[in-house]
Specification:
The complex is a heterodimer of chains A (262) and B (861). Chain A has 262 residues and is α/β, with parallel strands linked by helices. Helices cover 36% and strands 24% of the residues of chain A. In chain B, strand 9 (167-172) and strand 10 (175-187) form a beta hairpin. The chains are: A alpha/beta (262), B alpha+beta (861). The A-B interface holds A 68, 73-74, 93-94, 97-98, 100-102, 105-106, 108, 110-112, 114-117, 125-126, 128-131, 157, 171 and B 403, 405-406, 408-409, 482-484, 486-487, 490-491, 493-494, 763-764, 767-775, 777, 854-855, 858.
């Protein structure tokens, strides 16, 4: 299940292992008694360093919850989550916040940027908050990569949806986090803009050695990943390596069919 | 119907967001209603008191009114006892009783402590009559029977722990009455604070009036079935024929009415002043309401768009918002009326602790009070919500389809900025004209116009100023807070209109504070300068509220050691005939010649000391000009109640002065020649100079001389100035206290803006938390935003207020306020205080923002 790839580490602490993040027997349940809903049902997963992982699954399968738990945004009911060697399920809000700030990058579906800050300020925001100086050559490279050099002084409202998402990608990359989580990062974009953003994500894995986990329900988006995890009813039910969009689509149809017959 | 239902649901759903607006309405309405209830209650209390103490018909000597010689001499006007006999003969009279009442007394206990109230309520001494039984019961002991008996009212006895047998000394112009308490009488209704002592009739006549067989008035009681009006006619008929007149007759109702009239003008001043402050609070509240509804409409843009898309008309949307405002107004006002009654009771308690007794039994809520409160609260709320409601009506149905995200940032419109600049410019020009004015009357018009225009101008350009000022403040204050400070600055700037309105609300109250503090300290500085320049006396002895300095006290002062001289100063009324034949009634300042040293005056002609020569006097330059008087002319002076004198003008004093402006001086001995001894008034004020080098000993000696007369004060120049400063300070503190209401509402406005902004920025906050902003940083960011808004309001307000204050001082320079002093310590304190107010205002919003769940925040639509 764990296909290790040797890549140079970048940013954050630790990072000597091949596994960037892992979940062990993670349960996430809401409510109690009759109304208890299990969103994650004893999930075990390893996220490989330097890989682009997509998490897929129908609505309510728990894919977003899994991502939120891995990213330290949400708490788990039981089980352990490790980011590199840190067990984040044990951390309190203060340390968790610092961990998100220093070691994790985020790209959300929409509303990624602060409207009061311009593109460059948004990109460097996590480092500003931490009181760190951005690494200038790296920042330039990231900005180059996402092709925003001429848009850095623009406010988010002056950028198109695709450009906004690219700024978000740049922000996620700029702090050199150990891992970037994307929550349907292309969900709000048309296919061309979406393809652009996904290409940048792919490039950042290939060229910058970045680890990325992305939740999506779009088979095309998933086809950019190295590995696709399928979630259903809070469990990982399948995975696929180096997928094409068609393969992903077929597999999805399978699940749908199975879902209907069972 | 559906509009109403939707509005109701919206109102209930967003009641949290409306809460602070409701509180603002509540506070303002409560202040209005509280003022009305309080003043009505005071009126009721005094009405009851007057009704109970007035006889069916009261007869008084006519000259007692319109001639203030009575209070000046310290001897009330009297009528002969024979008049009482005359009145008894009239038809319909059941009984007529002569009464003695004097307000020119001070009552002290055996430790020489003043038993009178220190809040302006009078001390009254009189004889105990049957009429008094209408309003009082003797609750212990007995009525005064002889010259050593005194009866005191129960409230005073309680307050000072007086018991039967205790000694009380009553100080009157005619001498002291030392007597033991023989009885204590309680008022049947509320006595708001007067100290009352009773003697037997003979003692009262002899010692309070100085003449036996005289009374100050006659209390006439009607026979059964005789109306007060008829009784008055009958008594008038009898008295017309009688000697010793003329008399003034008043029925019980007329007496109560005239009593109320006198008091009413004082109560009205208080009432309108307090209503004025309530008005300011309302004005400030408008900003809060406008901000709230603007934010609600913005936040609901999509929802409104949907309503429009499915067929709501503009009018319906518009009306929907107004109905919400109406509900808010009703809720706030109803609570406000209730709180107002509570406030009135609280005020009564405070007054009670200051010695002004008011009973909740007399609590008067006129039907107009809730009506006025509700009407004001509702109208103000709906009017304030009108502009946001119109904006809601303009939302296009397309808004439903757009991604709302964060509401578009409002920008200050250029047209608005232009109008604001024109208004401010015009106002500033008027203020400048004010400073150049040559007549106070026209200048005050300019000042008023300038104040109003600059205020409106500042409110209108508020959003524009917000941009500039917030940046400036941030450059100084926020830089040290790094990125958090920068984000706070950006947040404060993102909606200049909102920041402008929030700051402007605070600006109003603080501008008034700054203006008044400038005027107040200029007043003190000017007076101090004037005193230094003109007063040569070392000590100033002032009379108390109960009348002039009694002869015994004067004697004691003159006997004090280490004194070079003591100066008398009396005001004597007289009718003056100038050489041009014109007559004017004036008050002459009759003083000892040393007064010329005690108060240095410039003369335009003659020597001031010559005015104290035999049969000489001086006049002011204005008067001299008006009547063409020159030194050497002769004035005909008819002293009230005395003879007519021919006095020579020996000097003309310059009226370029603030102290004793226009005073006409003459020697005390000159005046005394033409007046019967009992018409020479005692001293109104006295001055003293110490033997060189013995100032301290002299001061101590004078204080000792007055130990038995606590109603009079002796002060050296330092203490006098300090006293003046304290008095101005006290007055300012009262005004600041009343302005606190407006400032509290403005602070609620800051809280409101922050709280609604936090709600509005839920997603942003979630995002920032997700990418690593700690709770502490988040809270700091909100606090800093709050501080910046507060400082913005403070800077505008203080700047504006200092401008107003300076213009006012320049204008008042014509009236003697020559020195401009800006109280920098007060200004700085207010400025720094506003920063803390900002921190305080952010407490709850910051706490709530910190508690937001990151996931929910991200998920919010």
């Amino acid at each position: 299940m764990t296909t290790a790839m040797t890549i140079p580490r970048h940013g954050g602490t630790g990072g000597r292992t091949a596994v960037a993040a892992s979940a062990r027997q993670v349960v996430k349940a809401y409510g109690s008694g009759e109304t208890r809903v299990v969103a994650l049902d004893h999930v075990d997963v390893d996220i490989n360093r330097g890989q682009f992982t997509a998490i897929m699954g129908p609505s309510g399968s728990g894919k977003s919850t899994l991502m939120h738990c891995l990213a330290g945004l949400d708490t788990v009911t039981s089980g352990e989550i490790h980011l590199d060697e840190t067990e984040i399920t044990k951390l309190k809000d203060k340390k968790l916040t610092r961990l998100r700030r220093d070691r994790i990058g985020f790209i959300f579906q929409a509303f990624n940027l602060l409207p009061t800050l311009n593109a460059l300020e948004n990109i460097t925001l996590p480092m500003d908050i931490a009181g760190r100086k951005p690494d200038a050559p790296w920042l330039n490279r990231v900005v180059e990569t996402v092709g925003l050099a001429d848009r850095l002084r623009h406010r988010p409202t002056e950028l198109s949806g695709g450009q906004q998402q690219r700024v978000a990608v740049a922000r996620a990359l700029a702090a050199r986090p150990e891992i970037i989580f994307g929550d349907e990062p292309t969900g709000n974009l048309d296919s061309r803009a979406g393809a652009e953003v996904l290409t940048f994500l792919r490039k950042s894995v290939d060229e910058l050695g970045q680890t990325i986990v992305m939740v999506t329900h779009d088979p095309v988006a998933a086809s950019y990943a190295d590995r696709v995890l399928y979630l259903a009813d809070g469990r990982i039910v399948d995975e696929m390596f180096s997928p094409t969009a068609d393969q992903v689509l077929d597999r999805m149809k399978d699940f749908d069919a199975r879902g209907r017959t069972s | 119907m559906t509009v109403l239902k939707t509005s109701m649901r919206n109102f209930v759903a967003h009641k949290g967001r409306m809460a602070l607006s409701a509180v603002a309405v509540l506070l303002s309405v409560a202040f209005v209603c509280g003022t009305l209830v309080f003043t009505d209650t005071m009126n009721t209390t005094f009405d009851k008191l007057f009704a109970a103490t007035s006889a069916d018909v009261t007869v008084t000597p006519k000259s007692a009114e319109g001639d203030d010689q009575g209070p000046r001499t310290g001897r009330p006007e009297a009528l002969p006892a024979s008049a009482v006999q005359q009145v008894t003969k009239a038809d319909g009279v059941k009984s007529a009783e002569g009464a003695v009442v004097s307000l020119s007394v001070t009552v002290v206990n055996s430790d020489n402590k003043n038993m009178g109230s220190d809040n302006g309520a009078p001390t009254i001494a009189g004889n105990w009559t049957h009429n008094d039984l209408k309003s009082m019961d003797i609750t212990s002991g007995h009525a005064p029977r002889g010259p050593t008996d005194v009866m005191v009212d129960a409230d005073t006895a309680d307050k000072h722990g007086l018991k039967l047998g205790d000694e009380l000394r009553t100080i009157a112009v005619t001498g002291d009455i030392t007597a033991r308490i023989s009885g204590i009488a309680s008022f049947k209704m509320t006595n708001p604070g007067a100290t009352v002592v009773y003697f037997d009739t003979a003692t009262a006549q002899r010692r309070l009036l100085g003449k036996p067989d005289t009374f100050t008035h006659i209390a006439v009681t009607a026979e059964r079935g005789v109306s007060d009006t008829r009784l008055k006619q009958e008594v008038a008929g009898v008295l017309d024929a009688a000697a010793g007149g003329p008399y003034k007759l008043q029925t019980a109702k007329e007496a109560a009415d005239s009593g109320r009239e006198e008091l009413g003008s004082f109560l009205d001043v208080m009432k309108y002043a307090m209503l004025g402050f309530a008005g300011i609070a309302f004005l400030v509240g408008i900003f809060l309401i406008v901000n709230t509804f603007s934010m609600l409409v913005t936040q609901r843009t999509r929802e409104i768009g949907l309503m429009r898309a499915i067929g709501s008309s503009r009018k319906q949307v518009n009306r929907g918002v107004l109905v919400e405002a109406l509900l808010l107004g009703v809720a706030g006002s109803v609570l406000g009326v209730g709180a107002g009654v509570g406030l009135a009771v609280g005020l009564m308690k405070i007054m009670g602790s200051m010695g002004m007794e008011l009973s909740t039994k007399d609590l008067t809520v006129a039907w107009t009070t809730p009506v006025v409160g509700l009407a004001l609260g509702i109208i103000v709320t709906v009017v304030a919500a009108y502009v946001p409601a119109r904006r809601a009506g303009k939302v296009s149905p397309m808004a439903a389809l757009r991604d709302a995200g964060t509401p578009a940032d409002g920008r200050a419109g250029w047209i608005r900025a232009g109008i604001g600049l024109v208004l401010t410019g015009a106002g500033g020009a008027l203020l400048y004209v004010t400073t150049q004015a040559e007549k106070a009357s026209e200048g005050s018009l300019f000042l008023g116009g300038g104040v109003v225009l600059t205020l409106i101008g500042f409110i209108v350009i508020g959003p524009l100023l917000a941009g500039v000022v917030v940046r400036a403040i941030s450059a100084v204050v926020l830089r040290m807070f790094g990125p958090v400070g920068r984000m706070a600055e950006r947040n404060a700037l993102r909606n200049p209109r909102r920041t402008g309105a929030t700051g402007a609300a605070l600006m109003i109250g603080l501008a008034l504070v700054a203006c008044l503090s400038v005027v107040g300290s200029s007043m003190v500085a000017s007076a101090t300068e004037e005193l230094d320049k003109s007063v040569g006396a070392d000590f100033i002895i002032q009379s108390g509220p109960s009348g002039p300095i009694v002869p015994e006290a004067e004697k004691a002062l003159r006997a004090a050691p280490d004194i070079e001289h003591v100066t008398s100063y009396k005001m004597i009324k007289a009718e003056l005939t100038s050489p041009d034949g014109k007559r004017e009634t004036e008050e002459l300042a009759a003083a000892d010649p040393t007064y010329a040293q005690d108060l240095r005056r410039e003369t335009v002609a003659g020597e001031l000391s010559a005015a104290y020569g035999k049969n000489a006097m001086s006049v002011g330059s204005d008067y001299a000009e008006r009547h063409g008087i020159e030194v050497g002319d002769t004035m005909t002076v008819a002293f009230n109640g005395g003879e007519t004198a021919k006095l020579k003008i020996a000097a003309i004093t310059s009226d370029e002065s603030n102290v004793d402006k226009g005073a006409m001086y003459t020697n005390v001995t000159t005046a005394a020649q033409y007046l019967p001894a009992d018409r020479v008034p005692p001293n109104l004020i006295m001055f003293a100079k110490a033997v060189d080098g013995k100032e301290d000993a002299a001061y101590a000696g004078l204080k000792k001389a007055l130990a038995e007369y606590p109603q009079f004060t002796v002060q050296d120049q330092t203490d006098f100035k300090q006293d003046l400063k304290d008095e101005v300070g006290q007055l300012l503190n009262i005004v600041y206290g009343l302005l606190a209401l407006a400032i509290i509402v403005a602070v609620l406005g800051v809280v409101n803006t922050l709280a609604l902004s936090v709600v509005e920025r839920t997603r942003e906050i979630g995002l920032m938390r997700a990418i690593g902003l700690s709770r502490r940083q988040l809270r700091r960011m909100i606090r800093l935003e709050s501080v910046v808004i507060a400082l913005f309001g403070a800077l505008l307000g203080l700047g504006l207020g200092m401008g107003w204050g300076t213009a006012a001082q320049k204008l008042l320079a014509l009236e003697g306020l020559g020195v401009l002093e800006i109280p920098w310590s007060t200004i700085l304190t207010v400025f720094v205080g506003s920063a803390f107010v900002g921190l305080f205002a952010a407490l709850v919003p910051a706490f709530r923002a910190g508690r937001m769940n990151v996931l929910n925040a991200i998920a919010t639509e």
